[in-house]
Design brief:
Blueprint: H1 3-9, E1 13-17, H2 23-32, E2 38-42, H3 54-71, E3 75-78, H4 81-95, E4 101-104, H5 106-116, E5 121-126, H6 128-133, H7 135-143, E6 148-153, H8 157-163, H9 169-184, E7 189-193, H10 201-208, E8 213-215, H11 217-231, E9 244-248, H12 252-263, E10 270-272
Parallel strand pairs: 1-2, 1-3, 2-9, 3-4, 5-6, 5-7, 7-8, 9-10
Helix pairs in contact: 2-11, 3-4, 5-7, 5-11, 9-10
Length: 277
């Protein structure tokens, strides 16, 4: 093993999202890859990403990627579906000279959905930016060209979920309204194309029916991350639990309070940062 590779093993996996939603992804990483170190950036000052333009999203991805690479990372994870749809190529272009691989939510989820659908009818519940970008439809068609894809742009759900604790009947009614087109399309598999949506997975499952399979980002991304690290010889060899830290561009106290609900683990100290640009 080279000295650079040895040092690389000790660097964190960097994860970014528009706010606290990506903590549902980080939760799965902490459970599936407990020996790794993590650095999470929540761009909460610019939440939500899902209604932003493609150009704006690409600028957000560029800022986040540059900053996390400067802090040091051995792998970069784009947990936000909207950011991945608009700017995955931007992140990869910036990370490639540093030898850092970038993985994102779209392809791993599409791979799972295409593998488990029996009817070939797959739904995608996502933000307007993600639906507009068409990344899920393209990824699913690459897996199985015959798949019928029904996409629903759920603009109201992320901010409602973020601000809706405890969930009330209005959240249930809104979720049901977005499920209606999926029920009409008789899908048997639904990709939850926003990191906030796993928080309401039980109510979505109740509305869609128990036979509809829900695909979330966390497990798929953790598996992709493990493969990427092992392929590059960068998987941690530590015996104990790794460290995890948090950065946010908005209110650190608010991030910590809300983040604990999304992460389902202690968040601890949150460092407020201001990104250039």
């Amino acid at each position: 093993m080279s000295p650079d590779q040895a040092r690389g093993r000790d660097l964190p996996i960097a994860v970014f999202d528009s706010g606290v939603g990506g903590l549902t992804v980080l939760h799965e990483f902490l459970v599936s890859l407990p020996h790794e170190h993590y650095l999470y950036l929540g761009d909460s000052a610019r939440f939500p990403y899902g209604t932003r333009s493609e150009d704006d999203l690409r600028r957000c991805v560029e800022r986040n990627t540059r900053y996390l690479l400067e802090r040091g990372a051995k792998l970069l994870v784009i947990a936000c579906n909207s950011a991945a749809t608009a700017g995955l190529d931007v992140a990869r272009r910036l990370a490639e000279p540093a030898g850092v691989e970038v993985i994102a939510v779209i392809e791993p989820e599409a791979e799972i959905a295409a593998a488990i659908t029996a009817s070939g009818r797959v739904g995608v519940l996502a933000t307007p930016a993600t639906v507009r970008g068409g990344a899920y439809r393209a990824a699913l068609e690459r897996q199985r060209p015959e798949i019928e894809v029904t996409e629903v742009a759920a603009a109201d759900l992320p901010p409602i979920i973020q601000n809706g604790f405890p969930f009330d009947q209005a959240v249930v009614d809104t979720a049901r309204s977005y499920c209606r087109p999926l029920l009409e399309a008789e899908v048997d598999t639904v990709i939850l194309g926003c990191t906030h949506f796993p928080l309401i997975a039980p109510m979505l499952q109740r509305t869609l029916g128990r036979d509809v399979r829900l695909v979330t980002a966390g497990h798929a991304l953790a598996a992709a991350a493990q493969r990427a690290l092992e392929a590059r010889g960068l998987a941690s060899e530590a015996a104990g639990e790794g460290d995890y830290g948090f950065l946010c561009t908005g209110d650190a106290d608010a991030f910590r309070r809300l983040g604990t609900r999304f992460l389902q683990l202690p968040v601890g100290e949150v460092e407020a940062v201001e990104l250039p640009g």
